[in-house]
Specification:
By secondary structure, the protein is an alpha+beta fold. The protein has 16 helices and 18 strands. The strands form five sheets. It has a six-stranded antiparallel sheet with strand order 1-2-3-4-5-6. The radius of gyration is 30 Å and the shape is elongated.
């Protein structure tokens, strides 16, 4: 046996202490039984049934934690209901984490669940650092044996071990340290800007070496998957961070973080129209999935920016053209209607745009059908004029947006941002930025020169189309019956906006969308189940634009 492993009862609390590299090598009890004194003896008694008892819970938890602390992976696994999976996981924890000393303290059971804390020391190449965390285990009765057993899940070992492939590792960091800074050169941190946490991790992964940083020694969760980023738990010794400049504007970012916190699930992105530089990105909840860049959601009536562009480019209508806006319209055997079935008599395309008349834009299909391009024209406009559907090399993962060829009733639905169309808040912010600038400039978070990545390109909008779109978006934001008037009332001119609401299967209330620009800043937001675009997403965008 190895020396340095002991157990004790301190103040009525059971402690497991294992010291010496690789833990102690012997069983902490004379026969780990999981609270079952019949283990190892022959018995004709029927397996126990029913819920586990309090005594069984305490005894099983004690035995499992003792075996784990002793580094006895096989014995610990036999105290679980899935020993085949548990054994290699416990062994990998012991070998991968480089824990030189560990103290595991069970708490007071709550039913069949036992919380516990782990206080450990990690030692790697002569460098040591304390490490502590809390987790819990649940005791269940074995289906065939009737024995009390720990219900196995990787999260028993650490709450961030969420999949069977994940494990804890200690060693030289995979990527070099990076100090991400904003456009002014001040450091960006997840503590100050929670939404940037995953983005900073990704920037470190991609650009650590290019930024001149060196690696340190860390303990991290290895996800075991190329598609799921690793997460650092503790840093034993820091590498020398390289400095990586981003395009983030601290004032706009702070406003974006604050604005989305008002909603349970929301995302916002802001772009500088004259350059394509991303000025802010924020999500609620923060610190997890970057919905603002990676979301793939129907954009609702914000898509009418692209549809109006298509109509002007195809000669269907100009902003002053009279268009029909009935309460409802049948297109390709499907009935579409306006909100509350409103109608406009003798109105122009500008009026239809600012009041978000669905039927006026769906009726545009007829002349395009005569040209046999109704199913493809919208996608071509999105790609060639707005860069949607091309590959965007932003600097971190980002969805490109999709406006695929459609058929049947999907075609009229796509003209009002439904059907198979998907976009992120960044994509929709870029729509407004393109209108303000008169041409598409691919959004980016770090300079393209850093890695010579290729940017997506699109044709500039013609002067007449640019002025027409700006005229319609301005009317939507400044005229009293414009759907964006309320949200944009305090936003400085020159300005323009477009609202949207997108229906989602299985969701009682539609998603709220809003995009707009003010001066040299464009933004877009989506609020899940937020309803009308001006009610939820509108205030988010307005707060961001006012900070620009």
């Amino acid at each position: 046996m190895r020396s340095g492993t002991k157990t004790a009862i301190v103040g009525g609390v059971f402690l497991v202490v294992a010291s010496g590299v690789g833990y102690g090598g012997y069983n902490l009890w004379n026969g780990v039984t999981g609270g079952d004194t019949s283990v190892g003896t022959k018995s004709d008694a029927a397996p126990k049934t029913g819920p586990v008892t309090g005594d069984e819970v305490q005894a099983t938890a004690k035995d499992f934690l003792a075996a784990w602390a002793a580094g006895e992976a096989d014995r610990a696994s036999q105290l679980t209901n899935d020993p085949v999976t548990a054994a290699p996981a416990v062994a990998a924890y012991r070998e991968g984490a480089s824990v030189s000393k560990a103290e595991i303290t069970p708490g007071t059971p709550v039913g069949a669940t036992v919380p516990f804390t782990v206080k450990a020391t990690i030692t790697y190449e002569g460098v040591s650092k304390p490490w502590s965390y809390a987790s819990e285990l649940t005791v269940v009765r074995g289906q065939t044996t009737g024995r009390p057993l720990v219900k196995w899940a990787p999260s028993v070992l650490h709450p961030k071990l969420l999949t069977a492939d994940a494990t804890v590792r200690t060693g030289v960091a995979k990527t070099a340290s990076v100090k991400a800074v904003d456009r002014n050169g001040d450091e960006l941190t997840a503590e100050k800007y929670p939404s940037l946490g995953p983005i900073i991790d990704e920037l470190r992964k991609r650009y650590g070496a290019k930024a001149g940083g060196t690696t340190g020694i860390e303990t991290w969760i290895d996800s075991g998957s190329a598609s799921v980023p690793d997460s650092t738990l503790i840093v034993l010794s820091k590498g020398k961070p390289g400095t990586l400049k981003t395009t983030i504007d601290p004032k706009v970012q702070a406003a974006a973080e604050k604005a989305v916190k008002a909603y349970g699930t929301a995302a916002v992105a802001a772009v500088e129209p004259s350059t394509g530089a991303v000025r802010a990105v924020a999500n609620s909840p923060s610190g997890g999935y970057n919905t603002a860049f990676l979301g793939k959601q129907a954009p609702g009536s914000t898509m009418k920016i692209v549809t109006a562009t298509m109509m002007m480019q195809q000669g269907v209508a100009t902003p002053s053209t009279k268009v029909l806006c009935p309460p409802d319209v049948v297109s390709r055997s499907t009935t579409f209607q306006n909100l509350k079935r409103f109608s406009i008599t003798g109105g122009t395309l500008t009026e239809a745009f600012r009041r978000s008349c669905n039927t006026a834009f769906i009726k545009a299909i007829k002349p395009l059908s005569d040209k046999n391009i109704a199913d493809t024209a919208l996608g071509e406009t999105a790609r060639n004029s707005f860069g949607i559907g091309q590959v965007w090399q932003v600097g971190v993962p980002a969805a490109d947006g999709s406006v695929p060829e459609s058929a049947g009733s999907e075609t009229p639905a796509s003209y009002i941002g439904q059907g198979k169309i998907t976009m992120s808040a960044l994509n929709v912010a870029s729509l407004s930025a393109t209108v303000k600038n008169g041409g598409f400039l691919q959004p980016y978070l770090v300079a393209r020169e850093l890695d010579d990545r290729e940017f997506a390109e699109a044709e500039r909008l013609s002067p007449s189309v640019t002025s027409g779109l700006q005229r319609m978006m301005n009317a939507t934001a400044t005229e009293a019956d414009g759907t964006a008037f309320g949200a944009m009332s305090g936003v400085p001119s020159p300005k323009g906006a477009k609202t949207g609401s997108a229906e989602v299967d299985g969701q009682a209330t539609s998603n709220s969308w809003f995009t707009g620009y003010s001066g040299d800043l464009a933004a877009a937001a989506v609020v899940e189940s937020g309803g009308h675009g001006g009610d939820a997403a509108g205030p988010v965008v307005a707060k961001v634009l006012r900070a620009g």
